[in-house]
Design a protein that fits this description.
Elements: H1 17-23, E1 37-43, E2 48-56, E3 63-70, H2 74-87, H3 92-95, H4 100-111, H5 119-143, E4 150-152, E5 157-158, H6 159-167, H7 174-181, H8 191-197
Antiparallel strand pairs: 1-2, 2-3, 4-5
Amino acid sequence: MAFYRYKFNINRVHYPERLAAALRQLQHLKTSDPAAISGSGGAFKCGCAVRIELETDAARSTITDAGYTTNGCGYMLAAAESVCREIVSKSVTDLGGADDESIYQWVSKFIVNIPTERSECVRAVCDALHAAFHKLRARRISEYVGELPLVCTCFGVTEQAVHDLIAAGRAADLDDVGRLTNAGTGCGSCRMLIDEMFDKP
């Protein structure tokens, strides 16, 4: 699937006025950067795809910019635009666990009404954002220079920190760890690992 900077002609397609107005104000549509931290998603019914790219600060703790490329329709464009607007200047740890419901709410604020037949367009954007954050977490792990292994890459929580909470009797279960450190409350991929730590002697 080829991605490209969309040359969108709003006069060629009839969209609801709120969506048409949004499409006249696209700010994050950009030329694809192969070196960017990115994720892709696709809508199989129409064969269209979207790529979301993230830029972060030196510590990879804040999204400093975001952009997208797509060959999709106005709904896919608007969904990607709304997501990029929402995440810029936000903390990576706060955004890393964004679920589909949250993403749909961001899109709904921009588009207002998402027709059922266009939900796959938004689904593709959700997939692209999740994939981008997955790559960002992987890059953070590869760049981590601490001596102690991380158990939660979303919030930078080490295995030792969780072990110490359990040993001190401050955490009796996974929910306690999440409440005290945020570990396990982001993408959720570490929840099983943390849960297993309670079974170790």
